[in-house]
Amino acid sequence: MAYSSYLFQQDYTYKMQVGVKGDIVINAGIYKGRYGTWVEDIKDDLAGFAYPLIKGALLPVYKDLEFEFVMEDGIALYVFEMSVRRVEMHGGFAIMWANQLDYPKRIQRREFLRVSCFWDIMIFHLGYEISKPMFSMWLPAKAIDISLGGYRFKLSKADAGDMTFETNDRILILFTLSEGQYMLSGRGTRIVQTDNMWEVGVGFDSMPSSLEKKLFGFIRQQEMLTRDE
């Protein structure tokens, strides 16, 4: 199906334009992973991608290999399901031509799937710091699920002391992902407490696009693992 025909069906195919950068995501096989690329050309129903590299060498691909092209426009992520048709040399550069298998998906942070993570994290209660300056501190907690829109954590009341949580409380999170350490701010959205535990849902205030891509990759990986079970 030609790219131009999609435009009249009001989907997001028009987002894929020459020069757009993104990632090729292969979800299975020996070369499973994410590879940076950009759109070199578009002809009829085919998109030509800058050939992905692995450790400086051309990534081995074959006809009908299915992959996802993931790009973002600063507001949302767009996922295109693609299939390799052929590889051509053009001006000394390799171009991988692929066709689209389905309508692209637009994914906003708060619409995306929430997956289990069980991460060791640190949290800092900004609201408590304001009410009791110099008394708040970074506390060890356990993130139990996460999405592009927020996360949920558990904190023992023994560690929290007299600290309490309410909706809209400002909370910082410090966590590690893909060997990088990140700190984000957010606000409490759902508070549950038992005799010995706080369970707090937090919505992110914002997120750098570089981290968003990494977190998106983690969520997609967890989603695929869940499908395989």
Number of distinct helices: 4
Query: What is the alpha-carbon Rg in Å?
Result: 21 Å
What spatial order of strands do you see in the largest sheet? 1-2-3-8-7-6
Mean pLDDT figure: 84
Order of helices and strands: HEEEEEEEEEEHEEHEEEH
Give the total of domains.
Answer: 2
From the N-terminal CA to the C-terminal CA, the straight-line distance is: 33 Å
Low-confidence stretches: 1-10
What's the total number of strands? 15
The structure class reads alpha+beta
Describe this structure in words.
This protein is α+β, with helices and mostly antiparallel strands and 229 residues long. It folds into two domains: 105 residues, Thrombin, subunit H (Beta Barrel); 107 residues, Thrombin, subunit H. 15% of the residues lie in helices and 50% in strands. Strands 1-2-3-8-7-6 form a six-stranded antiparallel barrel. It is elongated. The N terminus is likely disordered.
